Structures are given as C-alpha cells and as structure tokens.
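On clarity, I found the account of how folds are encoded harder to follow than it need be. Since the whole study asks how a given chain folds, the encoding of that fold should be made plain. For the editor and my fellow referees, an illustration may be useful. An entry of this sort, consisting of the sequence and the corresponding backbone structure tokens, reads as follows:

:::
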Amino acid sequence: MYLYTYDGTFEGLLTVIFEAYERKAWPTSIEQEHMAQPIMFGDTIAVITDDEKARRVWRGLQQKLSVGAQQALYHTYLWEQPGFEQIIYHYIKLVFGSNESIEGNYAAQCVLQVQQAAKQVHREKHRMEAFVRFQKTADDMFYATISPDFNVLPLIIKHFETRYADQRWAIYDTKRRYGAYYDLNRASLVDLELPDHMQKPALSPDAKHSEEDDYQRLWQIYFDHVNIPERKNPKLHLRHIPKRYWKYLSEKQPKQLRG
C-alpha cells in the first residue's frame, strides 16, 4: 500500500503520477499533504512538485489525448470532490497503458467519472460568468466575491478579462481564499486573506464607491420593468437561476430606500 501526498497543485498531482511510474509503486491513495492521515500499513511517499516532471507527464498526455479530453482531465482536478486524485490517476494510467484512444471507453469507470466531473465544472463555470455582479469600490476598482461549488475561478478569468478590459477588477473566492486581479494589462491569480467586510457579497458602506448604491437601484428598476408579471414561471426561473446564486445578483437583493 502506498499513500502519496502532494501540495494540492495540478503540477504536484502530475509529479505524483511521474513518481509512481518511476518507482513502479502504484498509489493506493493520493492526498493533499495538509489533509493526509498517517497510515498504519504501507508507505507514505511525500512528493515535492517538480515542474519538469509534471511537464513530461502532460506532454505524454498531449500526444494521446484530444484537446477536449485534456481539458476534461484538468476540469476534474478543479472539481475537487473526494477521490478526484485517484480518478485522474486511473485515467492517466489507462491512457498510457492503451494503444488506442480511451476517450470513448465509458465502460471504464474512470473515463465516465472524468466526463461527468468535467460537465459539472463546465456548467458551474458558465453560471459564474453569468451571475457574477461587480461592485465599484471607493478606489475605483470593480470587485466581486464568489463561492462556487467547484474551483472555477481559473476558468472564468478570460471571460472577464475580455469583457472588462478597460476596468480594474478583482474576483475573490471566499471558499478557497484566493482571487484574480486584473490591472488593465493582465489578470493574475493571487493568494490573500481579506478582511471580513471584503468576503461578503455586499461591500461595507465605507468600502463602496459613493455612486454604487445608485447603480444597484438602477439595475433593480430595470429588472422590474423587463420582468413581466403575466409571464412569470417560478419553476423555470429556479431551473435557470438556482437560489444558491441569488446572493450574487443585484436584482435579488432587498431594495434600498434613498436616504
């Protein structure tokens, strides 16, 4: 029995795969080092991320997988559900052990699991792109918080970088405690601990731009005017906008009275 531990990065996980092949010691379990529990029987192998080893594994996968399958594998990493590392390991082992494409081999559980995980992550990505609402801060930056079910922040950056290319913005994932910051030139991921008032969907009054409340009221008025009561379909509405996303939407917040 072999327990492999790694730092939680995608490159670290690919390094684990490299080490398993080099040692011919196939992992019984793969866990992030801060979550790993000691095992009574077998060996624990602590893997240090090696970018070159990770690149060698990824180049090998690129030669045998379509771009879509490569994306699905990365999306499975972002899925973050228990056991995702073992799913990825079994998938990669199947890829390297087969002379033919395994992408349509849904009889293999790991192939089916990767496809299912990738679909869930892809759906969450599109919902975040649609439902994120920025607020203007006192220092003229546009700011939003998210807490998605899956780690989709790396996937939504390009969308907002293109859509808001002329504005400084930041998106912070409160669940994973890291964010993306765009400085008018490029967007980058940043690890940081924000104060409590910056981790809530609504900014505190002292952090907001003086005109932000007016923008919010205008958006609510617009939503009220385009929302025709006779055409309301609550079930369809909830299907397209589940309640867990309402906290992001200006039109779903309590209407503010002008002071």
